[in-house]
Give the backbone structure.
Amino acid sequence: MTFISEHFLLQSAAAKRLYHEYAAQQPILDFHCHLSPRDIAENRRFANLTEIWLDGDHYKWRAMRANGMEERFCTGNASPYEKFMAWARTVPHTLGNPLFHWTHLELLRYFSIDELLNEESAKKIWELAGVRLQDDDLSVHGILKRFGVTAVCTTDDPADSLEHHEKIAKSGIGTTVYPTFRPDAALRTEDPSAFAHWTKRLSAAANVHIARFRDFLDALRKRHDDFHARGCRISDHGLNVCPPPGCTETQAAALFDKVISQNPISPEESANFAGFLMVYFGQLDAEKGWTKQLHLGALRNANSRALATLGRDTGFDSIGDWQQIPSLAAYLDHLDRESMLPRMILYNLNPADNYAVATLAASFTQEGIRGKVQLGSGWWFLDQKEGIEWQLRALSNCGLLANFVGMVTDSRSFLSFPRHEYFRRVLCNLLGSDMEAGLLPNDIALVGSMARNICHANAAEFLRLPRSVPRG
């Protein structure tokens, strides 16, 4: 039964032409993901569908729990086949959820399985996929080559050693893999014990003895330098709300001394400390010509019972509802006044804030740079058809869609590269619909060139990644 047809999601003749002639063949530059550098370095092979498809996938876990499945089938000790069968029983209940689209798109693109997944088809699909997983083109390196992935930017803590990136650089694979500098742990002062532990890790990675706040800043700068030497040109921050600037170094140093001495500080003090560091990180990025990413608006770990029993990143998060714009505007303005505003991508999780973030981004420009600060792609709960369309409309109405840097997988799974195909089909369908409605000119070359650039060329130009990563 064919569900993912040649013209999946393409609802007009113009959309079909845009996708098949301009978008489909573009290579993939996945500049934000959570893929494992170790798996890439070791060219991991996966034993079964559960290993490659279900392990660590909190999207699927959320759906399974919503369908009443026991936790042992998600994060528990059920066998790989039992977990897969629990997912197969859930899939028919995901009609209308993007998981239904992604599931069947991935089965077709990776395993050539053109069959709906359910309890009856599960055993056959498990066996067919298991055989295919033994082939070289479904090893990690094989997958990257098969999907035309020119570059991947992983997400890395400043305290990480980067040893796997060193190994990848020497491997000779066709995909260039860059680290991304994500110093979220440097802002987590609400738990003094955890902060002190991470600071010791940072000290060891940077080979800088940290006794005072200036040492802490020096260690962060050293790791920023180390990441740059390894090809990194992008930083990233996961924030509820961008903390406000204004805290002085003297004030931040006093707060650091309190926390490192295992004394608690107030939420307001923690926000002030984070605000100082965010300005510091912005300056570091601007000095080296990096692009800064801000992921804004996630309410993480809403279920405290689940957090206590299962830990972070297990699927108990939601969209937050905070006032984003005042502190974000103050942050961008502070860096701009100091001539230290790097190129920036703002990922917004609450769709109610799309227009506010898009208009704020368009308020910060620089001669010679197209879309210096821009609204990033729909992410997490918004990386589905409707969420993507909302983001594209907000960016188009309030800025220049032609400058958009396009989609990222934001995924831990090597089966997620069809997310780029999904995005491209949604993009082309939106543009094609506007062409047929007379809202865009019936000029396939004009509109098609814009679609093509959004799929790859804009990101390559904007991010300025080095062509190769230094070895050793």
User: Anything to note?
Assistant: Residues 313 and 456 are 29 Å apart (CA to CA). The first strand starts at residue 28 and ends at 30. The chain has 19 helices and nine strands.
